[in-house]
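Hi there,

I know you've been waiting on this one. I reran it after we fixed the sequence typo, so this is the corrected version. Both the input and the resulting structure follow.
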Amino acid sequence: MENLWGWLLQNVLTMNMLVEAIVIVVILPIALIVARPFSRRLTRLVETRGWGNRVQGKLLRGLIPLLKFIVAIILLRIGHMVIVKFALSGLLIKTAASLLFAWVVIRFSTSLLRDSNWAKLIAFIAWAAAALHIFNLLNPTIALFDQLAITLGGVRVSLLILIKGVIVFAVLLKIALSASSVLEKRLMSFEDLTPSVQVLLTKSLKVTLLVIAVVVALNTLGINLSAFAFIGGAVGVGVGFGLQKVVSNLISGVILLLDKSIKPGDVIEVGDSYGRIQSLGARYVSVVTRDGFEYLIPNEDLITQQVINWSFSSKLVRLKIGVGVS
């Protein structure tokens, strides 16, 4: 404890650090005041020029919230030069300017992403890594995370591997979902394909891309997939006992898509439910009635029960209407 207090007195609680801290505290509100009129002018420029959805508008909208930090960086650089003139180290001011510069670059780059949640997550991870690098703590932190490890079934799993796995899997998952969305729109534009085939292909592509993302993420981390063979047995037992209905609905959904007995837009009647098929899902079929009610009918029921498809081969049907005679 005495050594820690001595280190603080010698390196942190010094007159040099106090002066630099005061300079930083004074510069930050000044930067906020100086940047405010520029922010208003740029906002007015975007609105008057009609650059809302253009590239210029997106770049300026990402730049406007960061103007106060940019001004603060400029003032900190000027303050660092002045501090050095008075034979002070300027280490604290230089570090603050470097941290702000890294934050501005990362935040501006991620602001171009459409998904705000992904942008915030990527910005936080990138800035944390940049901050550790600025303080020369990146390599020691990586070594520490690599030492925190356990062995499972002959596989060494460390905290560093888990963090890398989460990041790689998140990126690959985002890419897989984006690719499946683009391919789904592309397939839906093909008029030669029936709605059932379109749904089947889109679901198959989505599942395939997700599986590829998981496999690539594990291979990227150097994890041998054969080491997880015992998990397959446990999953099989779980599927056999606890997921019978779920698997049955999934298989029934594939069968419905293959035999083309029902498709989106058909008018069906299952038991007391009568309406138009809104969509085909992996587990259920959405049926909307004329009253606006939406029934989610499990796929298994459409296989095992009697289904009346009023528009299966033709939309022409004969209705028997009783007419009262006085």
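Quick highlight: The longest strand covers residues 273-280.

Best,
R. S.
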